[in-house]
Design a protein that fits this description.
single chain, mainly alpha, 0% strand, rod-shaped, transmembrane helix, transmembrane, membrane
Length: 196
């Protein structure tokens, strides 16, 4: 009996050891299950990280696209600025053409002013010629007057000569009268001589 009980105890001991081993195995399996779950979690995290990496790459691509859009926006702004500059240059070109037209107009006005000055000079010359013509006419009149004076002088000289001739005639008349008186005296003397 005791032998049977001992064998039963041995069997029970073996069963107990087997149960302990099974418990250890079960605990190991629990640990492995926990490790497996951790690995699953890590796999999920890895997949999440992969997705995050994909998202990050997408964000990098989006950042690159955004930078490209910023570059395109800067280019567009530069083109707008260049368009504004081009319009300003067109306006400046129009202003320059207007200034050229104004310069041509100003040169034309200068030419017209020169022509006007030339006409003023010609008018002054014409007035001077009119004055010279008047002076010439005055000189002609003075020449006529001078000729008239010369004629008057000649007439005056002629009158002086006539006056001298008249005076000579008067003297001759006086002489004639004196001769008449002398002749009368002579006749009187003759008569007296006859009487005596």
């Amino acid at each position: 009996m005791l032998n049977v009980i001992a064998r039963g105890l041995i069997i029970l001991n073996a069963i107990a050891r087997g149960l302990i081993i099974l418990d250890v195995i079960a605990r190991g399996l629990i640990i492995w299950d926990a490790i497996a779950r951790g690995l699953i979690i890590l796999d999920v995290i890895a997949r999440g990280l992969i997705r995050l990496d994909v998202i990050a790459m997408a964000l990098i691509r989006l950042d690159t696209i955004a930078r490209g859009l910023i570059t395109l926006d800067a280019i567009a702004r530069g083109l707008i600025i260049l368009n504004v500059i081009a319009r300003g240059l067109i306006i400046l070109d129009a202003i320059a053409r207007g200034l050229i037209i104004l310069d041509v107009f100003a040169r034309g006005l200068i030419i017209l002013d020169a022509i006007a000055m030339g006409l003023i000079i010609l008018d002054d010359i014409a007035r001077g010629l009119i004055i010279l013509d008047a002076l010439a006419r005055g000189l002609i009149i003075l020449d006529v007057i001078a000729r008239g004076l010369i004629i008057l002088d000649a007439i005056a000289k002629g009158l002086i000569i006539l006056d001298a001739i008249a005076r000579g005639l008067i003297r001759l008349d006086v002489i004639a009268r004196g001769l008449i008186i002398v002749d009368a005296i002579a006749r009187g003397l003759i008569i007296l001589d006859v009487i005596y």
